[in-house]
Amino acid sequence: MRKNKSIRSLVRETELSTSDLIYPLFVVPGVEVKEEIPSMPDNYHFSLDLLLEEVAELVDLGIEGVLLFGIPKSKDEIGSRAWAKDGIVQQACRKIKDEFPELLVITDVCLCQYTSHGHCGIIEDGYVQNDATLDNLAKIALSHIEAGADMVAPSDMMDGRIQAIRTKLDQSGYQDKAIMAYSAKYASSFYGPFRDAAHSAPEEGDRSSYQMDPANSEEAMREISLDLKEGADIVMVKPALPYLDIIRRASDQFNAPLAAYNVSGEYAMIKAAAKEGWLDEEETALESLLSIKRAGAEIIITYWAKKVAKLIQ
């Protein structure tokens, strides 16, 4: 059953498809900006005027969804640019949906890129205030949906934010808009390149007080269960490769669509090793994503989406 490629393909248990993949995009202020992110080769910051060229290529490759991250021109203590009608993500949503109405547009809902201190919530007395942050997160989500987003993805890990967002959207007439919850988001060392890309590193301290301890597994199941009860439509495990056991447990335990985020550090390690000639980039990328799907993820958010889509084609 392994003798040649045709037989192996015939009995293959797991297949990658472009419909499995969501591609993250970083949108920045300015004009004619396409700047490669040093720690994430082949990924870029795009200004609004060049964003549609990138999106057109994704559509041609058969990629059906994008996840938008915005980097604002200015920041403040509460991250108020995150819910501004003329915010960078809001503008990007309108542009993309005007040109490519069938493309699934998902937006990151968080404050870290927008706050001057780099944390995901309001800070008082040196600590992130969970409950005080919820209303602002709901305002961000509503502003994205009003701008044309199909789905919001809260990544902040504040307790109760799914219920706050679901209530705000429902009360505003958006009962049909979906929420993809970063339900099991670990306080991981694998986020470094992303924080470089999103300009979102904390000014002081870290995010261990609201992101999950990498040692915990049962806690992840509780967090996923709570998000589903509060109204999440899709749940997510982040990162992916160091937490394949969590993906498998979530897949086995919950009858809900499951996403996994193949994060920047996972991407950057393969890129760095391939540059040195230690790994074959394409084969390693494919094997990595295949392992995530085999573990049980139905949706994979990955910086490999473009390359893998070309290989699949």
Beta content comes to: 15-25%
**What value does the Rg take, in angstroms?**
19 Å
Order of helices and strands: HEEEHEHEEEHEHEHHEHEHHEH
CATH hierarchy, class: Alpha Beta
Binding site for Mg(2+): 223
Subunit structure: Homooctamer.
Binding site for 5-aminolevulinate 2: 264, 303
Binding site for Zn(2+): 110, 112, 120
Structure description:
It is a single chain. By secondary structure, the protein is α/β, with parallel strands linked by helices. It has one domain: Aldolase class I (TIM Barrel). Helix content is 40%, strand content 19%. It contains 11 helices and 12 strands. Helix 2 packs across helix 3 and helix 4 packs parallel to helix 5. The chain is globular, with a radius of gyration of 19 Å. The chain starts with a helix and ends with a helix. Belongs to the ALAD family. Catalyzes an early step in the biosynthesis of tetrapyrroles. Binds two molecules of 5-aminolevulinate per subunit, each at a distinct site, and catalyzes their condensation to form porphobilinogen. Its cofactor is Zn(2+). Its EC number is 4.2.1.24.
Keyword list:
313 residues, two-stranded antiparallel sheet, 11 helices, 12 strands, Delta-aminolevulinic acid dehydratase, magnesium, metal-binding, ALAD_AS, zinc ion binding
